[in-house]
Design goal:
Order of helices and strands: HHHHHHHH
Length: about 210
Amino acid sequence: MACGRPPHAADAWRAEHASQFRHLMRVAVSVREGAISSSTLLKRLRSGSRKNSTYTAFREVGRVIRTVQLLRYLSDAPFRRRVTAATNKVESFNRFSQWVGFGNQGVLADNDPIEQEKAMKFNALLTNAVIFHNALDIAEIVRQLLEEGWEIDPKDLAHISPYLTEHIKRFGEYSTHELGIQPEAYDSKLDVDFTQLREQDLTAAGFSTAA
């Protein structure tokens, strides 16, 4: 029963939205199969949304999902820790992306949507390129430590962030003779056993190795 509604109103509310269930499922399948994009769907739902029964049904489903997630968040301490860790990662990435896109303080000065999209995609490309470069540098240092006889704990590596900026000169130093230098092939192999760490992640996410 929906909170705050008298019994007869709750029955009418359930009947009204239950009739929309099949339509909601058809819309969900259409989005999943690519028959309609989520952006197009949102545009259609926003058009006269308060009079649109499908919009109302989706809104109620969203409220239910949000309530369930909030209750789970309040009652499950490990879940709260995972949410906090994920949120911190997202915030760290956003700060790093803003640091990379330092020109004009990251403000999109162009009113043209196409140019705005270009600026956002170019910044995302540059951000990912720098993250990849940092990951390569970290992997190379780990290999050097292993060659020197150091024992690397995968739990320690899990705390290393690729969002490093101290060693980067944003204005750069450009040497034209380096344009023709071909980098070595990317080697993702590290002689570190991450098995236990992966199993812990699966368990924390609610999966078992048997699954």
